[in-house]
Specification:
397 residues; alpha+beta; Aminopeptidase; eight-stranded mixed sheet; six-stranded mixed sheet; 17 strands; globular; Methicillin resistance protein
C-alpha cells in the first residue's frame, strides 16, 4: 500500500506522537518553534500506512540565498521502526519535494549504527573503517531509496549514551574509579546542592558561566535571549540543572528531554566548581534526575578529541555511534551546494547577507572558488574547531 504523508498542526498531538514512538527531544514541537524564530520554519509530518502511523518527522526548512531556495533538515529524526525506515524516508522525501521544493533533504536520525556500541577510546581511523564497510539490512534499504551518507555533519554521530534504566549502583560502577571518587566528594561538599534552575537570577549566573566556558574552550554561544527562548518554547522538556555553593551557581547542564531520551544541549563549570569537583556530581545527579522521570537514555551529545569530551568519557565504559548524516538530493543544484557546504555554513552563521555573497561566488565558479576556500578554511583551523563549527551550524543563527 502507498504511504500517505500529512502535516500535523496540533502541539499536544505531535508531542504525544514523538514521545510514544521513542522520539528525540529535538523532534518535539517546542524545538521547531524555537528554530522558527531564526530563519527556519517547521513542518511536522505524519506517515501512515492506511490507518496505522508508521513514521513521523519534524522537518526544519532553512531559507537559502538564490539560487538555492531552501534546505530541508530533520534533526535526530525521523521516527520509524527498523522495518519501516526505508519506506518512511522515501515517502518523506517525496512529500518534502512536492510541498516545499527544497534543493535537498538532510536527515540525522537517532538510529544506532549497525556496528555500535564502540569500545571506549575508539580512534577516528577505527570509526572511519567501520563506517566504510558495506551496509546491509534496513540501512542498505535507506541508501537504495536515494540517501547518501555525508560528512557534512550537523549533529555529531559519535557520542556517549548511558542506559539510565539500570539501578544507580550499576551506573556508578561504569564510572572510572577517580570519577566515582569525584562524584562522591562533590556530594559531600560543604554548602553544596544540586537542582533545577527556576529563578532568573540563577539563569543569569548560568549564562555567565556558559560564556566563560565558551571562551576557555573556544566555541561560540547564542545570545541570552536564545537561551531564554529554549526555556519558554520547550516548556517542561527544557530542564536546566545546576550545582550551587551557597547562592552561587558553579556548574550547570542544560537538557532537553523527551519520553525516552535526555539530550545535553550545553554545559559549563566555573573555576570554583572545578575545584570542588561539583561538575562530576552534577552529571551523575542529572542522570538520576531523568531516570526518575522514566527516561531510558542519557545522551552526552557528541564526542570529539578535546578536553570536554575526555570529561564525558569518564562516565561510561563504552562509546556510541549513530548512523550519521544522510542527504537526499531533490534538485540538480544540491550537489553544487553540498560541495561548498562548510563555507556556506560558516557564512550563514554570520548572517544571510554574507551567505548571499558566498552563493554568488558558488554560482559563478561552483567547482573552483568555494572548494578552494573550503580547503583553505579547514587548513587554517584545527580539526576540533572545524568540527565544533559544523556541529553548531543548526543551532547558531
Amino acid at each position: 500500500m502507498t504511504l500517505s504523508v500529512t502535516s500535523c498542526h496540533d502541539r499536544d498531538e505531535w508531542n504525544a506522537l514523538v514521545n510514544s514512538s521513542g522520539g528525540h527531544p529535538l523532534q518535539l514541537w517546542g524545538w521547531g518553534e524555537l528554530k522558527s524564530q531564526y530563519e527556519w520554519s517547521a513542518d511536522r509530518v505524519v506517515v501512515r500506512d492506511g490507518d496505522d502511523v508508521v513514521g513521523s518527522a519534524q522537518v526544519l526548512l532553512r531559507r537559502l540565498p538564490a539560487p538555492f531556495k531552501s534546505l530541508a533538515y530533520v534533526p535526530r529524526g525521523p521516527q520509524a521502526a527498523e522495518a519501516d525506515r526505508a519506506r518512511v524516508v522515501a515517502a518523506l522525501a517525496q512529500y518534502v519535494k512536492n510541498t516545499h521544493g527544497p534543493i535537498g533533504l538532510t536527515i540525522e536520525p537517532d538510529w544506532e549504527a549497525p556496528f555500535a556500541p564502540l569500545e571506549k577510546g575508539a580512534s577516528d581511523d577505527e570509526i572511519a573503517s567501520l563506517v566504510a564497510r558495506p551496509t546491509s539490512g534496513w540501512l542498505a534499504e535507506v541508501e537504495a531509496a536515494g540517501y547518501v551518507r555525508s560528512d557534512n555533519t550537523g549533529l555529531i554521530p559519535h557520542t556517549l549514551i548511558v542506559d539510565v534504566t539500570r539501578d544507580e549502583d550499576t551506573i556508578m560502577k561504569e564510572l572510572s574509579s577517580s570519577t566515582r571518587q569525584n562524584v562522591r566528594k562533590s556530594f559531600k561538599a560543604e554548602n553544596a546542592r544540586f537542582g533545577l534552575v527556576t529563578e532568573q537570577a540563577d539563569l543569569d549566573q548560568v549564562l555567565a558561566i556558559n560564556k566563560e566556558t565558551a571562551k576557555r574552550a573556544n566555541f561560540a554561544v547564542h545570545s541570552d535571549l536564545y537561551h531564554e527562548q529554549i526555556r519558554d518554547f520547550m516548556g517542561p522538556a527544557s530542564q536546566l540543572i545546576a550545582a550551587w555553593e551557597g547562592d552561587e551557581v558553579v556548574a550547570f547542564v542544560w537538557l532537553v528531554v523527551s519520553g525516552k531520551t535526555a539530550f545535553e544541549l550545553y554545559g559549563g563549570v566555573s573555576p570554583r566548581g572545578m575545584k570542588l569537583r561539583l561538575n562530576y556530581g552534577l552529571k551523575f545527579w542529572a542522570m538520576t534526575h531523568v531516570k526518575a522521570q522514566g527516561v531510558e537514555r542519557y545522551d552526552f551529545n557528541g564526542l570529539l578529541n578535546d578536553g570536554i569530551s575526555d570529561f564525558k568519557r569518564q562516565f561510561a565504559k563504552h562509546e556510541d555511534m549513530l548512523v550519521g548524516t544522510y542527504d537526499k538530493s531533490l534538485s540538480p543544484m544540491f550537489p553544487v551546494f553540498a560541495t561548498a557546504l562548510p563555507v556556506v555554513r560558516s557564512t550563514l552563521k554570520r548572517g544571510v547577507p554574507a551567505a548571499k555573497k558566498t552563493a554568488v561566488s558558488l554560482k559563478n565558479d561552483p567547482k573552483g572558488t568555494l572548494v578552494g576556500a573550503a580547503a583553505g578554511a579547514r587548513s587554517k583551523a584545527s580539526d576540533v574547531r572545524a568540527k565544533r563549527a559544523d556541529a553548531a551550524w543548526h543551532r547558531l543563527d
